[in-house]
């Protein structure tokens, strides 16, 4: 019979699963609400809730993410990609190089910024004559980064989170921390096997979806309407607001072209002049209604992408997972004033969303087509809400030594940690101090680069694990869900752990999956007498190697919208890769542990 406290913990677990799956609220907020509920119920003490913030591994995760962001901003990764992809001619050649380079780099760099940097190369290469659209390459890009990230302790935050949970249980359970390359016994063979699989099957299994960014440049009249004020128009001398051009049905004024210069964003008090060209975006099918209501306007065609000040700076971006823009309408987010960019179209699941642009509620994975102003790059430099995929204006180059220093420093920190000469926390901290001293990064970069949501999720996950262990919930789950697999021996138990983790990680955030299952797996190891590290690694690989859906891993969500994919596309190419990964993981770990 379950105790009252156990029922409360089960209720909190159910709430977390439903909230994450249905995206009822921010993942960090979901965990905070759940864990605070356990605190109010008296199941967790304040010190148990706060203990996770003192975990060294959380600090290591934050530091590595900060260094990764600095590396991305310096442009050294762009230079590496330039070197390797410049001579690629065929689809297979580009795909092979991409999987090899991305998986190799993501073993030591955070895969999210790596994929963000690589995406423009995919788009630019796909523009060549006779080449496939980006949809043939974006899922392989995400999967290559996942394959590489699983090969080392620091390759993905999921591995570091599990290691932080191990350190919490180190004294009680007698566990030891995981080594830097303990993941390589499974990860490296899977980089080779998984990379070969992607090169062979991607062209056959992935769809040839439309490239909306290229389509926008070629068919702007499907997205934009240009009108000129007629001679003697009554609107001349009136402000945009007075003319009633602020709240049009289905359209909004994104730019005014005046005497060879572009004015954007358009201020409501801007006075209209004779011969101004007004550029509208949104539902262009309503142009007839616009011209009927405003007879002072006449349609014209102008060169929108010239090199002068009137030329449009076109940007394609994707809403990040855990973005503050999620569930806000474009109007509520004040997108134009916040980023100096107007949203021209929103694409979701490969289809353009119709209706009034300002009323569209944004979701993670949505692709935004933007007309950006001069200040766009400065305003989005510290942005974590969306990733820029393609743009017609290139960012300025960084000095070579500033680009190389953080990458060389990171490699040195990893080597020193691997040789057990300097702890990883200390070596990466010194590296950040050096980057600040030589002004490769600024204090603003450091503060702005901290992923507070991730820190909260990890700390609250540790507290949830304590509650599951204290109340016996972990033991109940292990006994009823995974212990029956014992009839198939240790191999059956490992397959059960892998399968449950992979499915749960595909339905919700994979970090949440390991948070829920870690105490269960630890209890299962005690009940079966199996080596706990072997089962923990099995669970970790299943969570980190997330190929079945776009939901469980951030890089999958990043490519979901730009590729125009459906869940079916991920499942079709991801299921065989998941089975392959499970086979290698169970086989190798059963021998090692």
From TrEMBL:
It is a multi-pass membrane protein. SUPFAM superfamilies: TrkA C-terminal domain-like. PROSITE patterns: RCK_C (PS51202). Residues 211-296, 300-386 form the RCK C-terminal domain. InterPro entries: Cit_transptr-like_dom (IPR004680), DASS-Related_Transporters (IPR051679), RCK_C (IPR006037), RCK_C_sf (IPR036721). The chain crosses the membrane at residues 6-21, 50-71, 94-121, 141-162, 183-206, 424-443, 449-469, 481-501, 532-553, 573-592. It is found in: Membrane. It comes from the Bacteria. Keywords: Membrane, Repeat, Transmembrane, Transmembrane helix, Transport. PANTHER family: BASIC AMINO ACID ANTIPORTER YFCC-RELATED (PTHR43652:SF2). This is SLC13 family permease. It comes from Prosthecochloris ethylica.
